[in-house]
Amino acid sequence: MLNTINISNKKVAYAGAKIAVAGVFGYSLLVMLYAIIRSSFIIYSIMRIGERSNILLLNGFSFAYSISIFSLLMALLSSIAGAVAGVMLKIALQYFNTNFRNRKAIVISFFIAFATLLFMYILLFAILKNWMTFYYIETFSFWFLLPAVIYVGACIIGGSRLNTILGRGITSNY
Amino acid sequence: MKRVNNYINYTLIFYTLIVIIYWGFIRSQNNNWGATSVEINMKFPITENIASNRIVSTRAININVSREKIWPWIAQTGQNRGGFNSYYWLENLFAAKMVNADSIHPEWQNPKVGDTVYYGKNEGYAFVSFAKPNEYYSLGGWTFLLQKIDSANTRLIVRYPSMEIKQSKFTTAYYYALFEPLHFIMESGMMMGIKQKAERK
């Protein structure tokens, strides 16, 4: 077997879960900012001076609160996907990138991300069917495009870092 | 990994602060946004049986036109009609397929008791329970009351009895955690949307 630094699957899964949670939190904060700014502009254009500040405050905090709660729920679910992707990445890197080359690790990470994304979306489509719609660009971007970009990005960065750690066992032998 | 840990911890602290502020200062105002104590306690001309384990909100807004100019926008409420005049981009994130009409449609101007009004495409619906042109409109208890101030000013008062929140622990958690703040956002957005369209020259 390869001479790699031994990182347990449990540790990799834990790290994958944490990266997924961080990704969800980052995305949620962006969504929060977007929703608050967009709705605030609308409120600002409708309400008169003296009526605005109260509704701007209530609306902003209501958005922040509901998105925070939703984000915590999504973080729980995503941590599972992150843990699974982490372990899959570790196995794939050990078997298909025996020299632990970084470029190859990036390609492998991309394919792992793509495969797991495809699996998740097929599963979601089978469950939600009628609910899934890309009728508007917002819907497509919110549920599909932006999470996919974040997920692929996190997989590539995480995969590259994992590859470096796994490769230390080999470089130390030279 | 340390940076990721720190980031997660700081976000959790931020979320905790938001929850504290929401429950401490915001929620109580949300339920009666814009309404006076008289309006909160007033009896609506039509009264529906509201179970005791529902939370009732009463919200109000001034609209600077007569009731007759506001009514057409309320009459055509519904996903299968002229939309809800709220944040359509938010509704469509949840596949509502909402389109807010930008004009008054004559074919939707006579809502009848029993008419089906959809909240979203293939989603929940309610029946029109009361409708009196230029005065009130009710969707299964969710009531829009137009109160005349003078010939050019109207008070739109909206009363909403929540779902029965004590059905199960899940319902209670879902209501307080997500439904209530989101309903406030959408309902206040709707009231402002109606105001904007009615006041448009």
What does this protein look like?
The complex is a heterodimer of chains A (174) and B (201). Chain A is an all-alpha fold and 174 residues long. Chain A has one domain. In chain A, 83% of the residues lie in helices and 0% in strands. The model of chain A has no long low-confidence stretch (mean pLDDT 87). Chain B has 201 residues and is an alpha+beta fold. Chain B folds into two domains: 30 residues; 165 residues, 2-Layer Sandwich (Alpha-D-Glucose-1,6-Bisphosphate, Chain A, domain 4). Chain B contains five helices and six strands, in the order H-H-E-H-H-E-E-E-E-E-H. In chain B, a hairpin with a 6-residue loop joins strand 2 and strand 3. In chain B, helix 3 crosses helix 5. Chain B starts with a helix and ends with a helix. The chains are: A mainly alpha (174), B alpha+beta (201).
Question: Which labels suit this protein?
Answer:
heterodimer; A: 174 residues; mainly alpha; B: 201 residues; alpha+beta; Alpha-D-Glucose-1,6-Bisphosphate, Chain A, domain 4; 2 domains; six-stranded antiparallel beta sheet
Distance between the termini of chain B: 58 Å
Radius of gyration of chain A: 21 Å
List the domain count of chain B as a whole number: 2
Give the name of the CATH architecture of the largest domain in chain B: 2-Layer Sandwich
Spans where pLDDT lies below 50 across 5 or more residues of chain B = none
CATH class of the largest domain in chain B: Alpha Beta
Give me the strand/helix succession of chain B: HHEHHEEEEEH
**CATH topology heading of the largest domain in chain B:** Alpha-D-Glucose-1,6-Bisphosphate, Chain A, domain 4
Low-confidence stretches of chain A: none
Largest interface: A-B, 43 and 40 residues
Q: Outline the biggest β-sheet of chain A.
A: none
Oligomer: heterodimer
Output the number of helix runs of chain B: 5
Shape of chain A: elongated
The major beta sheet of chain B can be summarized as:
6 strands, antiparallel
Strand share of the residues of chain B? 15-25%
Q: What is the helical fraction of chain A, as a range of percent? A: over 70%
